[in-house]
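Example for tutorial group B:
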């Protein structure tokens, strides 16, 4: 069974997220999403609209997602990849190169971001 892993906040879910999750899932047979805990979002200088629990429940409803676990720090990726026997690590290419240190443990793939949509953009447009 080929296991794929990806990380993110996944707040105000949009089609850019869905495109990423679909392509990530298509790279294997099983997709783990490591979802940023509210405390970790603070480290990323992000404040999610939805709580971790709500963002987790939303992701679990997506057909491409097999399991959702919490992301609590920047350092957990190595242990996650090892502990969950992950074959492929996937992120959008806004992270291009940032996680290449994982290449000694698994495949590392950066996928093109979906243009024209972002959680920030949604927040700004809804405010108007
Ligand atoms: N994404 C995308 N296209 C967009 C927006 C997002 O492909 N228009 C991708 C991002 O590249 C990322 C995933 O969707 O792979 C989740 O995006 P965010 O929730 O913004 O995640 P981020 O804050 O980048 O968290 O440890 C890594 C971090 O947790 C990544």
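The residue assignment follows.
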């Amino acid at each position: 069974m080929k296991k794929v892993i990806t990380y993110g906040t996944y707040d105000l879910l949009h089609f850019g997220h869905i495109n990423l999750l679909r392509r990530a899932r298509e790279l294997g047979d099983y997709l783990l999403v490591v979802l940023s805990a509210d405390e970790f979002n603070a480290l990323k200088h992000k404040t999610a609209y939805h709580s971790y629990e709500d963002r987790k429940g939303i992701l679990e409803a997506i057909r491409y997602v097999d399991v959702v676990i919490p992301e609590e720090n920047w350092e957990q990726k190595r242990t996650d990849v090892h502990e969950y026997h992950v074959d492929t690590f996937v992120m959008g290419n806004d992270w291009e190169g940032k996680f290449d240190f994982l290449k000694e443990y698994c495949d590392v793939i950066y996928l093109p971001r979906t243009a024209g949509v972002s959680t920030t953009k949604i927040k700004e447009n809804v405010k108007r």
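Residues 7-10, 16-17, 20, 36, 44, 71, 91-92, 94, 113-114, 117-118 surround C2G (CB under 6 Å). Compare this with the pattern of hydrophobic and polar residues in the output above.
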